[in-house]
Write a structure and sequence with these properties.
The complex is a heterodimer of chains A (342) and B (458). Chain A contains twelve helices and eight strands. With 342 residues, chain A is α/β, with parallel strands linked by helices. In chain A, the strands form two sheets. A six-stranded parallel β-sheet of chain A has the order 2-1-3-4-8-7, sandwiched between helices. In chain A, strands 5-6 form a two-stranded antiparallel ribbon. Chain A is globular, with a radius of gyration of 20 Å. Chain B is built from 14 helices and 22 strands. In chain B, the strands form five sheets. Chain B has a seven-stranded mixed β-sheet, sandwiched between helices. In chain B, strands 17-19-18-21-22 form a five-stranded mixed β-sheet, sandwiched between helices. In chain B, strands 1-8-6-3 form a four-stranded antiparallel β-sheet, with no helix packed on it. Chain B is elongated. The chains are: A alpha/beta (342), B alpha/beta (458).
Chain lengths: 342, 458
C-alpha cells in the first residue's frame, strides 16, 4: 500500500506518536474483527464500523484531560476504545453477552462507562448534541473546569435540535466542543445532496460560536485543533466547533452495499490519506521507530483484539432475570459529578 | 495456521445468500480490507472484504452458488508456503450454539399466569392524626415543594420558558428566582426539544433538573428526549446511567384553547417503562408527590392541570411532607361501586359520588395519584368489595388508562365483577373551540353518574 506523503512536522514526542499509532490500530483491528463476528452471526442487528475515522477520536482524546466527558451517536466503538474502555467489555456488548458494558442489554449503539466519562452511544441521530451540552452544563453548574466533547456527523448537522443547542450553549457559555465528524455521507446521501452549505463549521457563526475545519486524516492536526478548542472552553469562553473532515471506508452499517460512491473513491482515500499509514510513515521516516518496533505493536494489538473476540464469544448470555432489572434506579449511581455535590 | 473463511451474514436478517462472484483466485495474496467476493443478500449485492492477511489456499464454494447458508466455509486462507490439505470443510458451530442458547432461555421463560394474589392495600394516612392544616392552592403547594427541595439540595434547579423573570407562565415558580437566583432558576428560549435534551444531559452529569414545560402539549416537541434518552438509558447502560429529572407542567384541557393546547398525556407516558408518572388532584398530593418526584432517582413525568392550579385544598403543615409513588388515596369509602380516577378526573368522580348518594348509591372513590407505578392492590381490594367499577379520565378513549385498568381488573378480579367495567373518557375527537362543543368533548359528571347507574343496574 502506498503511504501518503507527510508534510506535517511532528511537534509531539516519539512516545506520543507511537501511542497514536497504537490507539488507531487498535480501533481498526477491533472494527475489522467486529465485522468478522457480524459475518459469523455473533453480532446482530446494526453494526456501524469506524474504520477510516480513527484519527478523529485518537487526536481529540490526546487533547482531553482526566474528567472530561464525551458523548456520540451509534458509530461509537472507536470513541470507547480511544477513551480507554476495555475492548473485552465493548466486544462482549456487541455480541450481547453478560460481560458487555451494558450486560448485553444495550448493544453496539448503546454503551456507557461512568468510570471513563463516556456517556453513550445514542441511537437517535442528533439527540446526543443537547445531551452533551447538558453534561457540560452540569460541569459549569458544579464549577469545575471540565469540558465535554459532543460528537456528531454531517448527517446530524441538519437536525433542528443541533441549532437549538448551539443557541443555548452560546447564550449560557457552556463548555462543550461540538465535533462534527464529517465523513461526507449521511448514510447513503452525499453531503452536497443533503446540506445547503459546503462548510458546516460556519453554521455556528450566527450564534457566535467559533469553528474551524480540521484534517481528520491527520491525527496531529486533530490534536492541535483539539488543544485549541479545549483551551477556549476551559477559559470560560463557551462552545467551540470543530468540523473534522474524515472518511469512512466501510458502508454505513454492515448491511450497506455502499453503491452511492465508487470503489475507486474509497480506494483513493485508503491509499493516499490513511491516518494510520500517515503516522507509520512519520515514525519510520523520523527514525522514531523501526519496522520491528511497529511489528511488535501490531502483534500486541492483534492479541488484544483476538482476546476480546474470545471473551465476547465465551461470555454467557445475560441471565433471563436481567430482562427485568435496571428499569428503575433505587439509588443514584455514583458518578464523578455526584461526588462533588455542593 | 490455515483459517476458514465463512459465508458472512451481511444484514440483520440474512440467513443465506448467493456467492455471486469471486474477485480472488486460489494462490492470490490478500491483505486486510481487500475485496474478495461479491455476495448477494436478501437486500443487496455486498462486497466482502478480507480481515486477515494470507494466501487463498482453496476456494470451497464456486461462484454462482445460490442458497449458501451463513457460516458455511467458502474458502481457506493459508499462510505463505503452508499446505491446504489438512483443512477440511466443516460446518461452523456458532449457529448451533446460538440455537441451543435460545432453547435454554425458553426453558427459563416465565411460568403461565399464576392465580391472582390477594391484594394488600396500604391505606395508612398520609399525615399523622392531629396535624395542623392550612388552606393552600395547588399552585402554591407546587411552588413550596420546589422551594423546599431546592433548599435541601444545591443540585436541584428549575429550567423552562418564563420560569424566572416572568415568575412562571402560570405563576407556579413565583418567587423562586428571588430566593435562589439566576443560576438555579433559568429562563430558556422557546426550544423544548433542545432544553429537554440539555436537562437530561445535566441529569446524567449529576444534577437534579426540574424541567417545566409551559404545557405538556409542547413536550411533544421533546418527547424523543423524554422517552429515548431519559427513560431508556438506565436499562441500555446496564444500570450505570440513571436520569434523575422531573418534567412538569400543566396537562390536559384548559378552557377554550382548542385542539393543539388541550390534550391529556397520562396514557402516553404511562406506557413507557423507565418513566414514573404522577398526576395529582389535590394541593396536598401536588406538594407531597412533587417532593418525592424531585428526590426520585428516575425520570418523572409530573402532570399538573391549569384549571386546578387556583383551587384550594387543606395541606398539612409539616417540616417535610411527602407522598410516596404507587399509593392510591381513597377519598370516599363506599360499598356499591368503585369509581377510580386521577388528576382533574377526580372532580367529576367526587361530584358524581355526591349526587349518587342522594339516590342511595354508595360509591367508593379512589384517586390513583400516580400512574406509574399504579396501586393495583387498593383498586382490586375495592372492586372485590363493590363488585363494580367505573373509570374516569379526561384523555382519549382508545388506549386509555381506563382500558388498562379494565383489563387488569378482568384478569385479577373477574369472578368478583357483577357488571362490565365502564370507562368514562374524553370523546374521540380533537378538542373543539366552540363553547358548546368543548363541553360535549370533555367527560362530564352526568356521564359518570349514568355509567354508575348502568353498572349498578339502576
Amino acid at each position: 500500500m502506498a503511504t501518503r506523503k507527510s508534510t506535517a512536522k511532528p511537534n509531539v514526542s516519539a512516545d506520543d506518536l507511537k501511542a497514536y499509532y497504537r490507539d488507531m490500530l487498535l480501533i481498526r483491528r477491533f472494527e475489522e474483527k467486529a465485522g468478522q463476528l457480524y459475518g459469523m452471526g455473533l453480532i446482530g442487528g446494526f453494526c456501524h464500523l469506524y474504520i477510516g475515522q480513527e484519527a478523529v477520536v485518537v487526536g481529540l482524546e490526546a487533547a482531553a484531560s482526566e474528567g472530561d466527558k464525551r458523548i456520540t451517536s451509534y458509530r461509537d466503538h472507536g470513541h470507547m476504545l480511544a477513551c480507554g474502555m476495555d475492548p473485552n467489555g465493548v466486544m462482549a456488548e456487541l455480541t450481547g453477552r453478560e460481560g458487555g458494558y451494558s450486560k448485553g442489554k444495550g448493544g453496539s449503539m448503546h454503551m456507557f462507562s461512568r468510570e471513563k466519562h463516556f456517556y453513550g452511544g445514542h441511537g437517535i441521530v442528533g439527540a446526543q448534541v443537547p445531551l452533551g451540552a447538558g453534561l457540560a452544563f452540569a460541569d459549569k453548574y458544579l464549577e469545575n473546569d471540565r469540558v465535554t466533547f459532543a460528537y456528531f456527523g454531517d448527517g446530524a448537522a441538519n437536525q433542528g435540535q443541533v441549532y437549538e443547542t448551539f443557541n443555548m450553549a452560546a447564550l449560557w457559555k457552556i463548555p462543550v466542543i461540538f465535533v462534527i465528524e464529517n465523513n461526507q455521507y449521511a448514510m447513503g446521501t452525499a453531503q452536497k445532496r443533503s446540506t445547503s452549505t459546503e462548510d458546516i463549521h460556519t453554521r455556528g457563526a450566527p450564534f457566535g460560536i467559533p469553528g474551524e475545519i480540521v484534517d481528520g486524516m491527520d491525527v496531529l492536526a486533530v490534536k492541535d485543533a483539539g488543544d485549541k478548542a479545549v483551551a477556549h472552553c476551559r477559559a470560560g469562553k463557551g462552545p467551540y466547533i470543530l468540523e473534522v473532515k474524515t472518511y469512512r471506508y466501510r458502508g454505513h452499517s454492515m448491511s450497506d452495499p455502499a453503491k452511492y460512491r465508487t470503489r475507486e473513491e474509497v480506494q483513493k482515500m485508503r491509499e493516499e490519506k490513511d491516518a494510520i499509514e500517515h503516522v507509520r510513515d512519520l515514525l519510520i521516516s523520523g527514525k522514531h521507530a523501526t519496522e520491528d518496533d511497529l511489528k511488535a505493536i501490531d502483534k500486541e494489538i492483534k492479541d488484544i483484539v483476538n482476546a476480546s473476540a474470545d471473551f465476547a464469544k465465551d461470555s454467557p448470555e445475560p441471565d433471563v432475570s436481567e430482562l427485568y432489572t435496571d428499569i428503575y434506579a433505587t439509588d443514584i449511581p455514583q458518578g464523578a459529578a455526584v461526588e462533588e455535590d455542593a | 495456521m490455515a483459517t476458514k473463511i465463512l459465508m458472512p451474514a451481511l444484514s440483520p436478517t440474512m440467513e443465506e445468500g448467493t456467492l455471486a462472484k469471486w474477485l480472488v483466485k486460489e494462490g492470490d495474496t490478500v491483505s486486510s480490507g481487500d475485496i474478495m467476493a461479491e455476495i448477494e443478500t436478501d437486500k443487496a449485492t455486498m462486497e466482502f472484504e478480507a480481515v486477515d492477511e494470507g494466501v487463498i489456499g482453496k476456494i470451497l464454494i464456486a461462484e454462482g452458488t445460490e442458497g449458501v447458508k451463513v457460516n458455511t466455509p467458502i474458502a481457506v486462507l493459508v499462510e505463505e508456503g503452508e499446505d491446504v490439505g489438512d483443512v477440511e470443510a466443516e460446518a461452523a458451530p456458532a449457529p448451533k450454539a446460538e440455537a441451543e442458547a435460545e432453547a435454554k432461555s425458553d426453558d427459563k421463560a416465565p411460568a403461565k399466569a399464576k392465580a391472582p394474589e390477594a391484594p394488600k392495600p396500604d391505606q395508612t394516612p398520609d399525615w399523622p392524626e392531629g396535624t395542623e392544616m392550612k388552606s393552600q392552592t395547588v399552585r402554591e403547594a407546587l411552588r413550596d415543594a420546589m422551594a423546599e427541595e431546592m433548599r435541601g439540595n444545591a443540585n436541584v434547579f428549575v429550567m423552562g420558558e418564563e420560569v424566572a423573570e416572568y415568575q412562571g407562565a402560570y405563576k407556579v415558580t413565583q418567587g423562586l428566582l428571588d430566593e435562589f437566583g439566576g443560576k438555579r432558576v433559568i429562563d430558556t428560549p422557546i426550544t423544548e426539544h433542545g432544553f429537554a435534551g440539555i436537562g437530561v444531559g445535566a441529569a446524567f452529569g449529576g444534577l437534579r433538573p426540574i424541567v417545566e414545560f409551559m404545557t405538556f402539549n409542547f413536550a411533544m416537541q421533546a418527547i424523543d428526549q423524554i422517552i429515548n434518552s431519559a427513560a431508556k438509558t438506565l436499562y441500555m447502560s446496564g444500570g450505570q446511567m440513571g436520569c434523575p429529572i422531573v418534567f412538569r407542567g400543566p396537562n390536559g384541557a384548559a378552557a377554550r384553547v382548542g385542539a393543539q393546547h388541550s390534550q391529556d398525556y397520562a396514557a402516553w407516558y404511562s406506557m413507557i417503562p423507565g418513566l414514573k408518572v404522577a398526576m395529582p388532584y389535590s394541593a396536598a398530593d401536588a406538594k407531597g408527590l412533587l417532593k418525592s418526584a424531585i428526590r426520585d432517582p428516575n425520570p418523572v413525568i409530573f402532570l399538573e392541570n391549569e384549571i386546578l392550579y387556583g383551587r384550594s385544598f387543606e395541606v398539612p403543615v409539616m417540616d417535610d411532607f411527602t407522598v410516596p409513588f404507587g399509593k392510591a388515596k381513597i377519598w370516599r369509602e363506599g360499598t356499591d361501586v368503585t369509581i377510580v380516577s386521577f388528576g382533574i378526573g377526580m372532580q367529576y368522580a367526587l361530584e358524581a359520588a355526591d349526587k349518587l348518594a342522594e339516590d342511595g348509591i354508595d360509591a367508593e372513590v379512589i384517586d390513583l395519584r400516580t400512574l406509574r407505578p399504579i396501586d393495583y392492590d387498593t383498586l382490586i381490594a375495592s372492586v372485590q368489595k363493590t363488585n363494580r367499577c367505573v373509570t374516569v379520565e379526561e384523555g382519549f378513549p382508545v388506549g386509555s388508562i381506563g382500558n388498562h385498568l379494565s383489563a387488569y381488573i378482568m384478569q385479577n378480579a373477574f369472578d368478583y365483577l357483577d357488571a362490565p367495567v365502564i370507562n368514562c373518557t374524553g370523546k374521540d375527537v380533537p378538542m373543539p373551540y366552540a363553547a358548546n362543543l368543548e363541553k360535549l368533548a370533555l367527560v362530564t359528571t352526568a356521564e359518570v353518574i349514568e355509567a354508575v347507574k348502568q353498572v349498578t343496574y339502576r
